[in-house]
């Protein structure tokens, strides 16, 4: 069976869990290794019928783990991928499923379709699923900026999909935001709400897993080649060496000199926060980390906010934990965030290049396969129940 994994750093994990605070969120409880939704049963006759389009991929595999860990209720489960994977066995919740080729009939009698098979597949099959009365939660960028399609981070703007419920007799598409955008907004929404943000400058350090299962395999292979043979031989996913290197994000370049990943941060943030009254720019970089993105964020605020108040409101935001230990020079690392539900924020400090208390710097790490993709999508699906 296909498997995607990252080894958690036990030492870091211990230190992080000791820093965790109890969240004021009735849907989740903190304090254990991860947040767990307490209210749902799993396989149940009146649960929704769920299918996963792209189950063999990096995000698809994470869907399975998140659905199980969150005890998502379901009555039927269907595993879908390309014809290449048809017949492959997938284990879920103690049962073995056979992967089916995704076709137009895949969505007959389904209630929820979790899509992570790429933009062109979403564009083709998303509307077909909706026609059949299915709710589609889509991880691709295909519908994110489409008018009428909610772009949702459940902790930030659940109201955008308030009228979408299973049993309403109709289907619909809800888009999952870009992974870097989700992680940035988990760290900054509390500040936007409290004092308003005038300008946001983001620099990302993005992991291989953000580019899918094959990119992870290539980074691992290249690392082996460099260590054993002193040179990179395999270059199938990226045209240059990735191991012990970093490069500008592989998303297509645009005429304005930004790449598509950077422009997603700009456009999606405005849609999610429902405002044009903010200036945003981003530089997105791929780094040779296997899993979990990191982002440095510089803010210009509309009103004064002290470091202490910023730290307090960020730490109280659901799904966010602080690692901000100046005495020990201990701040968020991808290994802290890897395989975790929360996003980790630290290095919260006044920007000394800006006047008064209107400039703020912070650093955030989040697992982009989890909160940046599968976990966020399953949280969205929970809002449909
Ligand atoms: N990785 C991340 O962190 C992340 C974060 C946010 C959003 N996303 C988005 O999620 C989507 C999937 O990303 P990923 O990283 O999981 O990619 P991936 O590891 O490359 O997996 C792609 C999946 O799509 C399936 N697929 C490809 N062509 C298909 C077809 N013609 N019909 C049906 N299924 C097909 C693949 O099936 P086979 O195995 O049969 O080829 C596989 O299950 C992309 O749109 C990506 O932009 C990814």
From TrEMBL:
Annotated region described as Disordered, given as residue ranges: 1-33
Key word rRNA-binding present: no
Subunit description: Homodimer.
Residue stretches of biased makeup (Basic residues): 20-32
Name of this protein: aspartate-semialdehyde dehydrogenase
Highest taxon, organism lineage: Eukaryota
Pathway assignment: Amino-acid biosynthesis; L-threonine biosynthesis; L-threonine from L-aspartate: step 2/5; Amino-acid biosynthesis; L-methionine biosynthesis via de novo pathway; L-homoserine from L-aspartate: step 2/3
């Amino acid at each position: 069976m296909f498997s995607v994994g990252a080894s958690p750093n036990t030492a870091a994990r211990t230190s992080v869990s000791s820093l965790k605070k109890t969240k004021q969120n009735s849907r989740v409880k903190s304090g254990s290794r991860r947040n767990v939704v307490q209210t749902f049963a799993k396989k149940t006759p009146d649960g929704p019928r769920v299918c996963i389009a792209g189950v063999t991929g990096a995000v698809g595999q994470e869907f399975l783990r998140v659905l199980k860990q969150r005890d998502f209720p379901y009555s039927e489960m269907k595993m879908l991928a390309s014809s290449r994977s048809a017949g492959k066995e997938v284990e879920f919740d103690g049962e073995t499923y056979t992967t089916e080729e995704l076709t137009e009939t895949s969505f007959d009698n389904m209630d929820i379709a979790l899509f992570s098979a790429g933009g062109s597949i979403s564009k083709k099959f998303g509307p077909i699923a909706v026609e059949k009365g299915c709710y589609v939660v889509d991880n691709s960028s295909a519908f994110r900026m489409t008018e009428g399609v909610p772009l949702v981070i459940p902790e930030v703007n659940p109201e955008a999909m308030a009228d979408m419920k299973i049993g309403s007799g109709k289907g619909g598409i809800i888009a999952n935001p870009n992974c870097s955008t989700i992680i940035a907004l988990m760290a900054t929404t509390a500040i936007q709400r409290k004092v308003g943000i005038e300008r946001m400058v983001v620099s990302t350090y993005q992991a291989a897993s953000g580019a899918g299962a094959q990119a992870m395999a290539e980074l691992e292979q290249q690392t082996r080649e460099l260590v054993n043979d002193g040179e990179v031989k395999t270059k199938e996913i990226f045209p240059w060496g990735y191991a012990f290197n970093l490069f500008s994000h592989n998303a297509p370049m645009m005429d304005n000199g930004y790449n598509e990943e950077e422009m997603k941060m700009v456009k999606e943030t405005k849609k999610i926060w429902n405002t044009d009254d903010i200036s945003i720019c981003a530089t997105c970089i791929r780094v040779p980390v296997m899993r979990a993105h990191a982002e440095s964020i510089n803010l210009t605020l509309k009103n004064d906010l002290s470091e202490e108040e910023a730290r307090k409101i960020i730490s109280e935001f659901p799904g966010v934990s602080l690692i901000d230990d100046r005495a020990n020079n201990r701040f968020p690392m991808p290994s802290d965030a890897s395989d975790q539900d929360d996003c980790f924020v630290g290095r919260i400090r006044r920007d000394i290049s800006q006047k008064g208390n209107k400039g703020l710097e912070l650093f955030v790490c989040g697992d982009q396969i989890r909160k940046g993709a599968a976990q966020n999508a399953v949280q969205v699906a929970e809002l449909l129940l």
